[in-house]
C-alpha cells in the first residue's frame, strides 16, 4: 500500500503544482475522489479549505487532508490509466512545450506516466541519467534500431555538468525531439513507446496470437493472449476491444507441454484449481517462450516477488543508493584524513616553535654563562647537563612525531591504492555493460528473424482461411440441397393429407351407397314377398358382378380396379418428382 501511495503522490504532485493556488485544493480533491472511487466528504472539504489563513497554501498545507481523507481510503479498485489521465489533463496544458514534437499528445502522456514510474522518490521529481539511459534503450530496442552509446555518453556529460537529471517535461521534449530516434517515422516511435508503456505501466509480460480449445464445443479458436503478473486475458484481436475470458494465475497453477494430436501442433496445458486450458502456439519457439514466461510468472507468485521490471527498477535504485553511500563514505574518510593531516601539521608547527624557543633560551643562557663563567662554573656544568637531557627528550619527541608522520603518509598511500582499485572496478562494470549491449543487439537480430517467420506464418494462415472459405461454400451448397429435399417432403406430406381427405370423402360416399343398398334390399324383400304372395313363385335377381369384391383402405368396393391402378400411377409420379 505504501508503494501505491508513492505512485499516486507523484501524479498528484504534478497536478497540484500546475493549478492556481487559490483553487487547486477543491478542484483536485473533487477529481481525485471521483477517479479513485473514494466517497466524497463535502463537510471535511469545506472545513479544510475554508477562506482564511489556515488554507491549503498556509502552514497547515494540503498533504494532511490528502493523506487523511483520500489516500488512506484508496482500496486499489480504480483505473490507474484514468487516474493518470486526469492528473495529466490538469498539468499538461501549462507545462507541455509549445514547440512541435515528433510524438503525439497520447505518446507524450505515456512518456509522462513512465517518468513517474522511473523518477526518484524526492521532490521536485527528476529522472536521473541512469534511468534516462534505461528508458531510451528500451524504446530503441522496441523500434528495432541500434543503441548509440557514444551519443548518449556525450549527452550525459553535458547533462551532469548542469543538473542531476531531467523533469517530466524535459524528458518529453528529449524523446519528442527525435535526437535518439533519427531515421524513424512517427508511427514506429509511437508503437515503441506503447510497447514500453504496456510493459512498465500495464505490467504486460508477454502477448501474442495463439489457438485455444473451447470448454463446451471443443473447437479451436484463435485468440490474442496478454500475460500479466497474476492473470492471462484473451481477446478476439489485438485491439483488446472484445474480451473473451481470463485465466487467473496463482502459486498452485502449473504449465506443461503436450504431444501433438488431433492435427494440432505445439500444444501445452495450463492447469488451475477449477479449470484446465489447452493452447496451441504457432511454432516450437513460441511454445517454449510462452511456457517459460508463464512458469516464471507462477514462480514469482509463489515467492511473492514483484514483476521483473519493478524488481529491476528497485535493484537499480538500491545500486545507486549503495554507490552514493560508498561515495559519501569515501568523501567522509578523505575529510577525516585531511583534518588529521591538518592536526599533525599544527602539532609539528607547535614542536618547531618549542624548539625555536628552546634554542632562544639556550642562547640567552649561553650569554649569561659567558658573563658569569668564573663565578658559576659549577652551576654551568649542572645546567649544561640538564640542557643536554632536555635536548635529548626533544629529539626523541621529534623522532616519534616523524614516525607518526610516516605512518600517516603510508595510510594516505593505501587510500590512494583503494581509490585506484575502485576506478578499476568501475571500468570492469563499464565493460560488462558494453557486453550486455552486444547481447541485446544479438537479441534484436533474433527478433527480426522472428518477425520474418511471423510474416510467413501469417501467409500460411491466409491460405488456410481461403481453404476454410471454400469448405464453407461446399457446406452451403449441401445445405441448399437439404432445403430442396425438405420442401419436396413438405409437398409429399401435403399430398398425403389431400389423399387422406379424399379417402374420408370416399368412405362417406361408401356409407351413403351402403345405406341406399340396404334400402334397395328392403324394397326388394318387400317386393319378393308380394310376388310370392300373389303368384306363389319367388324369383330373385341380385345385382353386381360375380367377380370377387375389392377391399381397400376406404372400405369394400370403394374404387374399381381401373381407378385404383390410375391412382397408383399418379402417386408414383409425384413421389419421383419430389425425390
State the oligomer. Answer: single chain
Q: So, the CATH homologous superfamily of the domain at 206-306?
A: Pleckstrin-homology domain (PH domain)/Phosphotyrosine-binding domain (PTB)
Distance between the termini: 76 Å
- Strand content range: 5-15%
In CATH, the topology of the domain at 206-306 is named PH-domain like
Biggest sheet: strands, sense, closure? 7 strands, antiparallel
List low-pLDDT spans: 51-60, 537-542
Under CATH at level 1, the class of the domain at 206-306 stands as Mainly Beta
State the secondary-structure class: alpha+beta
Q: Topology as H/E string?
A: HHHHHHHHHHEEEEEEEHHHEEH
Biggest sheet strand line-up: 4-3-2-1-7-6-5
Query: What's the average pLDDT?
Result: 82
Q: How much helix is in the residues?
A: 55-70%
* Total helical segments: 14
Secondary structure tally: strands: 9
Q: What sort of overall outline do the alpha carbons produce when their principal axes are compared?
A: rod-shaped
Tell me the Rg in angstroms. Answer: 52 Å
CATH level-two architecture of the domain at 206-306: Roll
Domain PH: 203-299
Protein name: Switch-associated protein 70
GO molecular function: DNA binding
GO cellular component, one term: cytoplasm
Question: What is the structure about, briefly put?
Answer:
The chain has 579 residues and is of the alpha+beta class. It contains 14 helices and nine strands.
How would you sum up this structure, described in words?
Helix content is 67%, strand content 8%. By secondary structure, the chain is an alpha+beta fold. Among the domains are: 1-95, no CATH class; 206-306, Pleckstrin-homology domain (PH domain)/Phosphotyrosine-binding domain (PTB) (PH-domain like), CATH 2.30.29; 342-424. A hairpin with a 2-residue loop joins strand 2 and strand 3 (231-235). Helix 6 packs across helix 9 (168-176). The radius of gyration is 52 Å and the shape is rod-shaped. The two termini are 76 Å apart.
